[in-house]
Design a protein that fits this description.
2 domains, Quinone Oxidoreductase, Chain A, domain 1, seven-stranded mixed sheet, 10 helices, alpha/beta, 26% helix, Rossmann fold, 316 residues, six-stranded parallel sheet, globular
Length: 316
């Protein structure tokens, strides 16, 4: 099969055997999405060599449970052992022995096929097209914020960053009825937010120590610094970014202001699929380009350009 391979900060299309993992489902990939994590892996933020990609919709080609064959699915990215302390205590996404699709010790989905345990799979409703279903994983990640924090309609919420994930976070936060403002840099980002009635704010208009909840989704130290200045004493700062290398942080001010800092990554797939089925969010407005798998290197180059939102791969 064809697959996009990452090694030593270089990506190239390779011919590889179909994945064979005993006891797991073999999935034929239909569409896959390029996300910021994929681009950061190329830059070297985490030492990974293998097939990239973790956002996908596909069709089960083979599985130990034959009832799954032919099902159209999205898949959770953490494959867990079920036996370690984290798994036994209800924290499977922090499994001590986990592999992570396209990120840690498990080949990803920028390929014709991938493999995942059946327990990772979620059936995609018939009314949800592939162009929407491919966003299930990042939409779930956006919803994780609401799994971690109860957001009130009276909360003043600031989202810093309106890129691929930031747009989905904005759409899901808007459903809570909170007093939401979003800092966006590029005109397309601003236009998409405005089209959904979501207020865009300039950096100059962000008053320090005002906001009950600040979500940082830029992936940049400057974004974190702005978020830290914006959050009020005893407010909450949600980190949706991964950063390459170390950052310098004034933790004394965080202690004095009693700031709650919450890391947030993977989220619930079932609610994400329900939102897509009910059309309460529309991720398809983020799609800027699509490439065939044979042109995956060009797709990565396009996705890395400033201001570009979602680039999709047609894999089968």
């Amino acid at each position: 099969m064809k697959a996009l391979w990452l090694e030593n900060n270089q990506v190239a299309l390779r011919d590889l055997p179909k994945p064979e993992r005993p006891g797991e489902a073999l999935i034929k990939i239909r569409k896959a999405g390029v996300c910021s994590t994929d681009l950061e892996l190329v830059k070297g933020y985490y030492p990974y060599a293998g097939v990239l990609g973790h956002e996908f919709v596909g069709e089960v080609a083979d599985a130990p449970d034959k009832d799954w064959i032919g099902a159209r699915v999205a898949g959770e990215i953490n494959a867990v052992c079920g036996a370690c302390e984290a798994c036994r205590n209800g924290r499977p996404t922090h499994c001590e022995n986990r592999t992570v699709l396209g990120i840690v010790n498990r080949d990803g989905v920028f390929a014709e096929y991938t493999a995942l345990p059946i327990e990772n799979l979620h059936r995609v409703p018939e009314t949800v097209p592939d162009e929407m279903a491919v966003f299930t994983e990042p939409l779930a990640a956006a919803l994780e914020i609401q799994q971690q924090i109860q957001i009130q309609p009276t909360d003043r919420v600031l989202l810093i960053g309106a890129g691929r994930l930031g747009q989905l976070i904005a759409q899901t936060l808007a459903l809570t009825g909170c007093d939401l403002c979003v800092l966006a840099r590029h005109q397309l980002q601003k236009d998409l937010l405005a089209a959904r009635g979501i207020r865009v704010i300039s950096e100059e208009a962000i008053h320090p120590r005002k906001w009950d909840l600040v979500v940082e989704a830029t992936g940049s130290p400057d974004g974190f610094d702005l978020a830290r200045r914006a959050v009020r004493p005893r407010g909450t700062l949600v980190m949706k970014s991964t950063y390459k290398g170390d950052m310098t942080v004034n933790f004394s001010s965080i202690v004095v202001d009693e700031i709650n800092i919450i890391g947030s990554r993977c989220g619930p797939f079932a609610p994400a699929l329900r939102l897509l089925e009910k059309r309460e969010v529309d991720p398809t407005v983020l799609i800027q380009d699509e490439f065939e798998l044979k042109d995956a290197v060009r797709a990565m180059e396009k996705a890395s350009q400033p201001g570009v939102l979602k680039v999709l791969l047609n894999c089968g």
